[in-house]
Amino acid sequence: MIQLFIGVTVVSLAFMAYIVFEPWLANVDRFSTGFRVTCPVQKTEAKVEVHTALAAISSAEGPPALQMRTCSLLKPNATCGEECLIGLAA
Asked: pLDDT tens digits for 31-78?
């Protein structure tokens, strides 16, 4: 009888974890691959990557908070206004 209770508990916990984490995992996949965008400053195509965990966690409650991690156009230690990320939040 106790084994049945443990089995039902484990299955229930696994199902609840799936319900809770599945949308987050889908968003991790969405934001982990990077995006091709047109740089509004240089008017050329660039590949940008965002901070995946921040975007995925924040998107659970609404529009994702996108913060650039890398950009193919930026030199090391250069700054960017990140205007190209505005359209990606949709």
From this structure: 888 889 999 888 999 999 999 888 888 877 788 888 998 899 988 767
Q: Reduced to 3 DSSP states, what percent helix, strand and coil does the chain have, rounded to the nearest 5?
A: 50, 15, 35
Order across the sheet with 68-71: list the strands: 35-38, 45-50, 68-71
**Paired residues of 48 in beta bridges:** 35, 71
Q: Which residues contact 48 (CB under 8 A, 6 or more apart)?
A: 34, 35, 37, 68, 69, 70, 71, 72, 84, 85
- Rounded distance between C-alpha atoms, residue 51 and residue 59, angstroms: 12
